[in-house]
Amino acid sequence: MTQTILTLSSNGPGLYEFTRAVETFVQNSGVATGLLTLFCQHTSCSLTIQENADPDVQVDLQNFFERLVPDGNDTSMRWMIHTAEGPDDMPAHIKAALTQTHLSVPVMNGRLALGTWQGIYLFEHRSRPHQRQVVLHLA
Predict the structure, then answer these.
(1) 10 and which of 110, 119, 124, 135 could share a cystine (Cβ 3.0–4.6 Å)?
(2) pTM of whole model > 0.85?
């Protein structure tokens, strides 16, 4: 068993791939077979496994979530009570609740068992830059 915490930087809403950092952790662990758990220590961003070949996929996902849960300044979001941290905060919590804060990826032969076009992403839901921590646990 081995663990680490990755600190990821975001520059506003979007998907930030960090597959290579996870692959490096797995390779350096010496673990040949196991299960990698990734856990995001935040409530206004999330984790996802998505296609990493065509960047339009990330653009379309971001646009979909913006339409699904608009910024708090949108008139459709006037029902929100939690507004102390800005108009993007409660929508970010909603988006995180609709997605995932943890992932599990099998490790086989010392490598992530991801499909050909799969990448691991931090899905940032806040408007301003953040430093995000993701715990990696491999057993």
Answers:
(1) 124
(2) yes
